[in-house]
Amino acid sequence: MTAYSVFIHSSGTSPALWANVPVSILAGTQPWMPANLGYAPLPPVARGVPLTADDDARHLAQSLPADATSVRIFGHSYGGLVALKLARLVHVPVESLFLLEPVLFGALRRALDRHPEAASEVNTLETSPIFLNDAVGGTAPWMEMFVDYWNRPGSWARMPTAMQDGQLAVGWKMYQEVRSVSQDPADFADWRMAMPMIVAWGDLTTASAKAMAHELLAVNPQARGLTIPGANHMAILVKPQLVFAAMEAALAA
Asked: Looking at residue 82, which CATH number applies to its domain?
């Protein structure tokens, strides 16, 4: 029987996001880095098929290694929301949660009065005619809006064609993830958990990401917050060693 560290990837990435996790973060557990629905090596999701974060969490719970006796769950962005849902579904003890900029926009929408800067960001997104538009969701115009929001204006245009094609190949699933995150009915209080938790964010990330992290910390008094200097939302992809070093230090503490 085995203890596992489960690493859940974010929208538009893959299990390779976590491929270089240091042994010290595993802390004697076995790593399990599954693909979310629609990502290789799983079959793609056909355009028009609806999916939610609950579907991803159920998929992971059902495919958890049979010899697992306990799990530590790590999730980035969309993977953070799936991690919270998975923690409620797995049939073995969840020892801890490490959430790197979990996206809980459905809950944030009901708390925007406390976060004016985040409110401005959310309003800009939600007033876009293509944000939750099924006709263009996951296509190049939608992808440009999504990528530029989490990075900086012009990021999609600067992306090599091969990378753009890779994103567009999972574009519909990415769009379904954004729809699910935006419309999730849970409030922050619904994510009050009993197990140890670390909620981390980059100091260069969006106001919305910081607001969601702080709201989650507010309802989990046992949780610790972790600011990662020099990191934005996608630092785990472009500056992984920076993020892993911060994770190592926080887990060691």
From this structure: 3.40.50.1820
Q: Are residues 99 and 204 in the same domain?
A: yes
Place of tokens 């992971």: 60
170-192: b or e for each residue (b if 16 or more CB lie within 10 Å)? Answer: bbbbbbbbbbbbbebeebbeebe
Helix, strand, or coil (residue 5): strand
C-alpha closest to that of 219 among 180, 185, 187, 188: 188
pLDDT, tens only, 91-120: 999 999 999 999 999 999 999 999 999 999
What is the pTM for the complete model shown? 0.97
Please report which residue ranges of the chain form alpha helices under DSSP H.
23-26, 53-63, 78-87, 105-109, 116-126, 140-150, 155-158, 161-169, 171-183, 207-218, 235-238, 240-252
User: Which tokens in the block code for residue 185?
Assistant: 């009915």
